[in-house]
Fold these 2 entries.
Entry 1:
Amino acid sequence: FAGVVYNYDQEGVHRAASGWEQCISIPLLQPGMAELLQHWDELLEQFSLEEAWLPHRYEEQQHNCYTFALAFINRVRQGQGQEPLSKAQFTESFLLPRTREASRYLTLHQELAHRDVYVVLLPEEEQDS
């Protein structure tokens, strides 16, 4: 994917096109909803300029990057007539499944890196059976 990552810390909101290559992407849009992406980009830019995200408002435990992301998601949900998500709901529904999946891949990668393994791609007809 190409894009810009917004993040919030004690220095305020940052926009970065690189430096996030090791992060986990959590898709929030269902397939077929790509037309919303441009609208989300505009909403995110407006949202990031709000007073709530000024540097002096940052608080490590209660008003941080996680708060920023969840507040934006809830703003979008509100605009779609949906109920806001609590931190617990968002963590359980969106974050934990993706981090568990990433953990499985990292474990597999570590196992393979320490063994002599040869990977063979099967012809398509054998893969389908």
Entry 2:
Amino acid sequence: FVYQPSGAHNVGAFDLLTECGRSGVLARIYYPTETQVENGHRYTEPEYVHGLLDFLHWSRWLRGFFAWAASRLRLCCAWHAPLIGADDNNDWVKLEQSKPADAETSPSNQEQQPQKQQKQRLPMIIFSHGLGGQRHVYSAICLDLASHGFIVASVEHRDGSGSCSFFLPEAVSASYDGDSVDAEATTTTVTDKVELKRLRKQQEEQRVWLHYEKHVLSDYPYRNKQVRHRAAEAIQLTDTMLRLHKGQAVSNWMPGCRGKQFDWLLVQFKDRIDTNRIHIMGHSFGAATALTAAITAPEGLYQTCSLHDVWMHPVDPELYRKLKVPVLFLNDEHFHWETNVARAREVLESPGLSKGMSTVLTIRGTNHAAQSDSGLYAAFWLSKRMGLTHALEPREALQLSSRVTQLFIARHEGRRRLTEDENELLNGDRPDVCFPEFASVPDEPRHT
């Protein structure tokens, strides 16, 4: 496994693609489950590896090796597992799926159908990846948060800022005949191996691949247009998850997750999201996305906003002082520069942020890549040499980031009192680990 989550829960996951064409939302959904994790799930796909290598300007001859290496990596999750608290064998989910539309109002049906017990509602985090990212390369922190009881919906942006993504042509929905193949299912209705291989290949060939759009980092109009598009995607994903919570119909066109046999994956979220505990977070360009979404979304949608190494350049300056939800600036020691910090401080001066609503914390011994999975791909010494990590071991850095985020959320949800040690960490009173301030260097050209 790439990463073992630190929480008490096992983690389930699946991919969600709500529409064919460019207008839908693509995401990976993580959530706590009671299902045991055995073999996990493949970490990524060759096309995503190639896209990431192109974004990093690494030699093309490395493609074959890295595609092979990535194929050996596994996510520590139970793929297509039931959400925690579901009845054995998902009976209540299948019941909800099979009931007629007027079943709830029919007295006879109420007498015949078993009563569904009230399920625990879970907090939810919407996560946005950074420039050149994809839904795979922040798996560790998403898995970790889910293992502590959160539903984590990680959006894959399709605005040209990701290293790779895809969409399905709209013609796919018109020609869909109901056949669906789960590439890693242990059982399938398709018994003929040749036919199974054909269906898998057919689904893969339907994808139209999107790659990173090369552009000057400092072009504000271009980057601002992207961050607004990204924020709209994050809000759209939030709305999609809330539709599932309300029991409204949502389609999943994701190859390997199509068909009525997978509908229960979506139906099981009915009445399972705590709508008073929805949070948004992101890393780098994703943090700029989270900030923009938190400000432009309907008031009250998000309860907190966690910004990991935020890249402020794409954010509209007119929005700097309009934030009204508690904000966490969680920083790595070796990333920020003076102009970026000055812009972040303007957000902290927002009239909508009263005393205690903002937290600034910098983790020692970390660089910008510490928030992603990149430092986990190789041994610590090799990751350091490649610049994928700094002095702090990657797993420690990720778990610390996850813990700080959870503590920040817990403080502002007010559902429990933080311990003295937890308050010390969140307040930056652990000088060996972190400090309550930005760290910056003079301005210079950089990547994010």
